[in-house]
Amino acid sequence: MPLHTAASERALLVSVAFGSERRPLPRSAAQARAAAVSAAADKPPLPDDGSRSGEFRELVSSAGARIAGEVLQRRPKADPATLVGSGKVEELDAVAASSQADLVIFDHDLSPTQLRNLEDALPCRVIDRTQLILDIFARHARTREGQLQVELAQLEYMLPRLTGRGKAMSQLGGGIGTRGPGETQLETDRRRIQRRVLQLRRELEAVRRTRAQQRQRRESVPVPAVALVGYTNAGKSTLFNAITGTGVLESARMFATLDPKLSAIQLPSRRKVLLSDTVGFIRDLPHTLVTSFRATLEEVRKAEVLVHVRDASSPLREEHKAEIEKVLGELEVLSKPRIEVMNKVDLLSDEERGELETDARILAVSAKNRTGLDALLERLDAELVRDPIVEQRLRIPQSEGNALAALEGGAVIREREYDGNAVCVTVVGPASLLGRYRRYRSNG
Fold first, then answer.
1. Which of 79, 303, 335, 399 lies 20 to 30 Å from 405 when distance is taken between CA atoms?
2. Please, are residues 166 and 186 in contact by the beta-carbon 8 Å criterion?
């Protein structure tokens, strides 16, 4: 079942590390990041050591729960029965009781058996990382499409766990009240969920067809598409707003953007492109979400250029990059041209910012302060290789006012001279636009 946490719920967080390491947050970014999260959450900032535990806390806060306590365990491998081992389960039982926790949240996926054993042993509800992320998605889904996708992912997560409970009941020996009625109810639940899953898939397929038709109409007028991708909370929506001037929701909460936003922008060459803001990714993103959000992620697959927005102030930015590339690999788009943008450089020291700016492969920007945006738009112009920018000399009769207006609107006119009843212009613009007026080409 989905979590739907209330603001009053107290959560005991359990992190299990299998040989992982901790990395310190850059000093110049720590206070600024904590203050930003605090302002967004309207509560005292949570301590963030820059490790995965800091990300886990942000997820829990995004779900609306209060943190009652935290337990970290390091072990060489997972315990197949409880993930953490019987001794740690006893400790969690005592900590959950003393902290008056309403639920225990594991920063790890639990198998059906592990989840059942932990629920039996602990005095409150138990959920895992996938359930937590699905609940956050459910909270932020605003459109009908987003709600369908989240519900499908939740049901696909639930099915194997329902199956696991059914198998467990059938192995109890067939005693009175243990097999017949219980198994019948489970089979009824399973069939009902499977029917709903099929219905959701049909509805989402209809959404995908509608989106494909809309895309075909857009593609009939050749306008290149560019998609912003990146780790959740990297600042994609803030960058989208800074470039487009629109009012997409900006939030320090994770997964604030679920439904793709599209807006037409004009590049320095005056060519128009469609920019899309997409859902953020995260480490160990549940595969059911990638599958369920296939219709949304089609915008990424159809884009000509991807803009990978990264949080320059995160100490885990290289790990985040690897996670993004893993998801892009699942979407089969790793071969697309990609521009790496280091966002939030306003949180770095002058020295740290200077080191970034020496790397020609990346662009250092601050979407919040609107710095570095011109360089980004120029790089986009250069990367759109399907419709390259070319320069031509044209001689156009003055009577062809429509041609002149089209060139002035979609290209840059560098020189203009009048020769009798004709206008001689040097034009720089997309090859697709200038190709329509090849009959006016001039060698002079």
1. 303
2. yes
Query: Structurally, how many domains does the chain consist of?
Result: 4
Sign of CA dihedral 67, 71, 75, 77: negative
**Distance from C-alpha of 226 to C-alpha of 267, rounded to nearest angstrom:** 12
Q: Tell me, letter by letter, the H, E, C secondary structure of 185-210.
A: HHHHHHHHHHHHHHHHHHHHHHHHHH
Q: Report yes or no: 69 and 99 within 8 Å, Cβ to Cβ.
A: yes
Provide the H-helix boundaries in 63-179: 86-98, 112-121, 129-140, 144-170
For residue 77, is it within any domain? yes
**pTM for the full model?**
0.71
Length of the chain: 444
- 55 and 22 housed in the same domain: yes
Which residue range is the domain that position 108 belongs to?
10-139
Instruction: Report in angstroms the alpha-carbon separations of 65 from 110, 232, 291.
Output: 20, 19, 27
Residue 218 lies in a domain: no
Q: Which of 288, 285, 282 is nearest to 149 (CA)?
A: 288
214 domain residue, yes or no? no
